[in-house]
Automatic annotation (TrEMBL):
GO cellular component term of the entry, any: plasma membrane
Protein name: Biopolymer transport protein
Organism: Idiomarina xiamenensis 10-D-4
Ranges in a coiled coil: none
Transmembrane segments annotated in the record for this chain: 20-39
Region forming the signal peptide: none
Major subcellular location class: membrane
Length: 135
């Protein structure tokens, strides 16, 4: 019987408890997921006009692209011009600090650009910028 208790004590001392290490790893994983910033794209490449007064925008979270054929793209999908306001409202609710950046092709109509700007302002986003290329 004495030998049996001695074996139990030796086995318990030899095992390593992995729970604290797993807790730390899990907390680090959550920290990195929460603090990561993800790059969002509008969905298409546009040929932006050049501007000599272009300024770099750091926190542009809502990207809207307008193609040369006046198609509006948000989050890699084509959106009807009448649904732009609802999409911007949804994206702005997800990130209230974000701003709208419109990537309009230089061959796109000004009318489409103005409609997208009006839709973003109607959605409550007043920080609206137009993307350009530096000269």
């Amino acid at each position: 019987m004495k030998q049996h208790f001695a074996n139990l004590i030796e086995e318990e001392e030899a095992s390593i408890d992995m729970t604290p290490m797993l807790d730390v790893v899990f907390i680090m994983l959550i920290f990195f997921i929460v603090t990561a910033s993800f790059v969002k794209e509008a969905g298409i490449d546009v040929n932006r006009p050049e501007a000599s007064t272009a300024v770099q925008k750091d926190r542009a979270n809502i990207l809207v692209a307008i193609s040369e054929s006046n198609q509006v793209w948000i989050n890699k999908r084509q959106v009807d011009i009448r649904a732009v306001q609802a999409n911007i409202e949804r994206l702005y609710a997800e990130n209230p600090q974000g701003s709208v950046v419109i990537q309009a092709d230089k061959m796109a109509n000004t009318e489409t650009l103005i409609k997208v700007m009006d839709a973003s302002r109607a959605a409550g986003v007043f920080d609206v910028s137009i993307a350009t290329q530096e000269e």
